[in-house]
Amino acid sequence: MMMDCQKWPEPVIRVQDLADSGLITIPKRYISQIPTTTRHNASFSHDDVNIPVIDLGGDPEETVRLVGEACREWGFFQVVNHGVRHDLMRSAKAVWREFFNQTAEAKEEFANSPVTYEGYGSRLGVQKGAVLDWSDYFFLHFMPASLRNKSKWPAIPSSLREAVDEYGEEVVKLGGRIMKILSENLGLQEDYLLNAFGGEEGIGGCLRVNFYPKCPQPDLTLGISPHSDPGGLTVLLPDDHVSGLQVRKDDRWISVKPLPNAFIINLGDQLQIVSNDIYKSVEHKVVVNSKSDRVSLAFFYNPKSDVVIEPAKELVTKERPPLYPSLTFDQYRAFIRTKGICGKSQVQSLMNCNNN
Ligand code: OGA
Ligand code: NI
């Protein structure tokens, strides 16, 4: 049977409304099927284990080395001295909090559909009966600039559009800087990765603002199930006060402790593919809690939708043949957009079925 990808398979329920209704047991649909041990054992939540923190204002050569090391060992790191103004980070978070604090009716005006996902949403994937995550989101296109349609962005609070615009510009610059650092670390020309992604004008950029409401039974559900990000780089601005992000390190989940004013950077599947597995996109998930809701801004720095992504020729050798077939990013992302999120199953299923 063909799946209808034009609309959601079931009536949409906003998790925030569920949480606000004061229920004490969560509906069955939100109960994660992932075994509790995998779901919640953050074996290392001691203060002494955290993802690497890198000062982007330090010695450039040392920065390249440290970023490269973090990408190979973790696929995740935090950056400080990243050049994005702290007041802009604060206001970007504040306007989105205000958006989610509006009435249900005001938010419904932006209700999204699975055709583009733009707008206010509560699920990923269109499979009927799927288990759902404990979160709502707002998703918007930022790059290429031709897709930046501000009339689809909330106009309340009145400062939202300008704050998001300014924030996005700065984050795109930061993403570009990190792409150069990665190119250099891989021994490629400085602009290699940017060009592979479609160049400055071509690259894709989307913002996903995640809202994780309080949950009366946080141990039974997840804010986001384990997944790797399908795109290039993710620049995540986490909540200042509430943690929840966990990153897979070997067989363990590590709770990330966000530093004030830092960004969390992680690599997506497209960089795993272009680097021919020198870098790995790493699985992560979000846990929720019963005390506070949480807001995070995930900016996805992606390849242009119709650009073909494949292992860099420079990184392919006789000993290390291309591990992945060539696919456009649109072809790649169709999977997550219909089936929802599912660990690293997609990039793993492509491995070694290369077409040459
Ligand atoms: C995502 C994501 C993590 C977080 O949006 O892809 O992994 O902390 N978010 O909200
Ligand atoms: Ni993610």
TrEMBL record:
Keywords of the record: Dioxygenase, Iron, Jasmonic acid signaling pathway, Metal-binding, Oxidoreductase, Plant defense, Vitamin C
GO biological process, one term: regulation of defense response to fungus
Domain of life: Eukaryota
Residues of the Fe2OG dioxygenase domain: 202-303
Catalytic activity field: jasmonate + 2-oxoglutarate + O2 = (1R,2R)-12-hydroxyjasmonate + succinate + CO2
GO MF annotations, alphabetized: dioxygenase activity; jasmonic acid hydrolase; L-ascorbic acid binding; metal ion binding
Essential cofactor(s): L-ascorbate; Fe(2+)
Pfam families to which the protein is assigned, alphabetical: 2OG-FeII_Oxy, DIOX_N
InterPro entries: DIOX_N, IPNS-like_FE2OG_OXY, IPNS-like_sf, Oxoglu/Fe-dep_dioxygenase_dom, Plant_2OG-oxidoreductases
Assigned protein family: Belongs to the iron/ascorbate-dependent oxidoreductase family.
PANTHER family on file: OXOGLUTARATE/IRON-DEPENDENT DIOXYGENASE
Full protein name: Fe2OG dioxygenase domain-containing protein
